[in-house]
Design brief:
- The structure is a single chain.
- The protein is α+β, with helices and mostly antiparallel strands and 432 residues long.
- It contains 4 helices and 21 strands.
- It has a domain of 285 residues.
- It is 16% helix and 29% strand.
- The strands form 3 sheets. Strands 3, 4, 7, 12, 13, 14, 15, 17, 18, 20 and 21 form an 11-stranded mixed beta sheet that branches. A 7-stranded antiparallel beta sheet has the order 11-10-9-8-16-6-19.
- A hairpin with a 4-residue loop joins β17 and β18.
Amino acid sequence: MLYKRTWGIFFSMALREEFLNRWAMGLKEMFLLLFLLLSLIINGNGVEGKGSTSLSKEEDMEIERLLKIINKPAVKTIKDGYGQIFSCVDIEKQPAFDHPLLMNHKIQMGPGSLPKVIKDKKASSLGVSLKIGLKDGGCPLGTVPIRRITKEELKRAKSSPNFGKGYPSNAQDPSNDQGKFHFALQSKDKDGDAVFGSRAALNTWQPNILGNQSSSSLVILRDASPPEQTRSIHAGWVVSSALYHNFLPHLSTAWTNDNHQKTGCYDALCPGFVQISRDLPLGIGLHPTSIYDGTQYYIIITVYKDPLSEAWWLLYGDEKKKVGYWPKVLFNSTFADHADVVQWGGIVYNAGVLPWPEMGSGHMPKSNETYRKACYIGGMNLIDKDGVAHPVTRGTPRRIIKSSLCYDFYYDLVVPGENYAVLFGGPASNSC
């Protein structure tokens, strides 16, 4: 009897192991397929495809099947007023946990501590801080908002293998073409101390773009790896009708572990970013936008490496509202622990048509003009290992511009209420 029971247990264990192995392989194959499609869809600012294309019945059925997998079952759907639809999905079943490295991840509801910001209380305000969020308090308790993927986006990805290129994480080299990107950035390289985050205020604009272009204002943290291996996180606002289906700026992020060759994507639309906030999703529209020589509207972005959870957290506003985080396990090299370089500025993308899009307000920054006429990033801070945000000192960062005929950068400027700041931008142009 013991003999039979022992062999029965053995075969039961063997069958269970075989089942688990097959299940894991199937899950891995599904993840790779989803990752490929989502990378094509979301991994870039613009679109090189030419809209929809006719598909066979089998291809159409395959896309319908993928949509059901990508768009998780929703407890509730919310439309934000700008054409975006967000699904309220179970926080433990959000897309982040389709990533193989996060299958057993324990959700962190907040960092161990928040960074401490040193700010001059006597300074006047630079404008109006945008208070954003989904209506009626957002999603129900236990769920988080995730932007829905449309069938048209999947069709476009299938018809165009070059759908998007992603942000250039290694924009320190202005001679590098970076595949149809132009940028005007200020870069603070590691000078002996590791960087554990950055805080900055970005005024919002609505630059004119075409359907296959984008324009953005960003805070970028990255490591010092060779260009093809750069690990980075980007956060700020992006105008991209291909991605968001309108011409407003949207709260946007991107991440990569290899300069967008095989990993990373925008927002929470491929496995990686863990959404925590119930009413402040990635991709939400930002409105109103700044007025030339008039009222300025801005957002405050903080990307912070929490020493307790060891995750990179995205915080919003003066109140440091917890949006979500990128777990440490997504990154290797030193970026799993700290950043070597922080950059602030604008990036535009163009899929090959003229003119090139506007950056920022569409006006070149000038030293004799006020901060209300160009795109600015103010209150630039570097966060140290103790969680203290230190203002960036004047003159220490270096200026990086590609194609200064189109876009320019002016720094060492004092903006009321935010001390040190930078200005950047430029008009639409055929000469880039």
